[in-house]
């Protein structure tokens, strides 16, 4: 059986496999080729081990070939399932079973798919794999997203992707008991961004533009400044006010600024996607 989550047990390795259940739950599967029911269940169990992605190891034992081990376990019926956690048997099923009964048994003892996804994402964040962790965290169902631990990890990913406003929103909902050193470090990053994002140069340009709201050259300059401090939504909004009436504003220079910002934000960015759609609706 060729899967990282499945292995065949024999008299040479079964003690090691049993000992390994201290580190990873082991689902022992006692079967035999002469028992049709047990042979038919094997591929379903392999698929289940694959779906659980390492939450348990499937250890299959052919009782016809390994009769002494089957006798040590006192196997009475085929197939027999036994779940070992921390070196101890915690649950089991004897005789033919629908796969649903085995899933129910696993659900009683192992973390859910969501919990496994969260653990995987948190591990990625700790290793600074923000690009990989961000979609996992964003796609979690709403109840899981309300956990403070998840919100903090999501905020860290958003900060790494320079999505400061969304990160600030996540951090604003962290309960007091979770406002530890980790939280304070993330808040400090947001505050540094906000200080840089409202520089005297930007304030001066905003003031001048408010007096001359149709000054396209000034708007283009301000949008470029916004972009430099990651205020990209404001930059795109400002440019779009001019471009929606004339795509050739400033002889195409403004459209170039607009496209450069979209390109920097990349394909997956929701703000960029929205403005791309608006641009396409004008072009086509």
UniProtKB/TrEMBL annotation:
Gene Ontology annotations for the cellular component aspect, listed alphabetically: cytoplasm
GO molecular function terms noted in the UniProt entry: protein-disulfide reductase activity
Superkingdom field: Bacteria
The organism's taxonomic lineage, starting at the top: Bacteria, Pseudomonadati, Pseudomonadota, Gammaproteobacteria, Vibrionales
Protein name: Putative thioredoxin
Species assigned in the record: Vibrio cincinnatiensis DSM 19608
Location of the Thioredoxin domain: 1-111
Ranges in coiled-coil conformation: none
UniProt-listed CDD domains: ybbN
Xref: PANTHER family: GEO12009P1
Example GO biological process: response to stress
